[in-house]
Fold this protein.
Amino acid sequence: MTTQPVCQAAVDLVKHFEGLYLNAYLCPAGVPTIGYGHTAGVTMGQTITVEQADAFLASDLTQAAGHVDALVTVPLNEDQRGALASFVFNLGAGSLQSSTLLKLLNEGDYAGAAGQFGRWVYATVNGTPTKLPGLVARRAAEEALFQSQTAQPKAGVTTEDGTP
């Protein structure tokens, strides 16, 4: 089964928070990084084009979405899937797999799951868990994207006012 790409809103979200770097650099964790947060096979001194950065991001987000598709057992709309793909791209599939966010989501508690994004705003700085403003903003954007389409893609479901 081929993994579908993520929605454009998720691509735009990741581009905004990652920024574009056409020259390889060491991220705060000491990992060579290029483009929009791409790390696989990157070497210091490497340079890429904007087109290559876009291709790396498309591939990286499709891979992240594949993890989302494998871990989530309830229906997702495009925005929910995209928000979760951004989360996985930033934090790794293991973080989603072990999260209360995923537990609540797979129980069908979409609102409860959305409320969990804000818990993932800490990074270890000099050995101390530290709340980072950039992560606060990113998680808020992911939560907003996750909640932007309220209708769940389930057949036969109607809204409170009776509309399909």
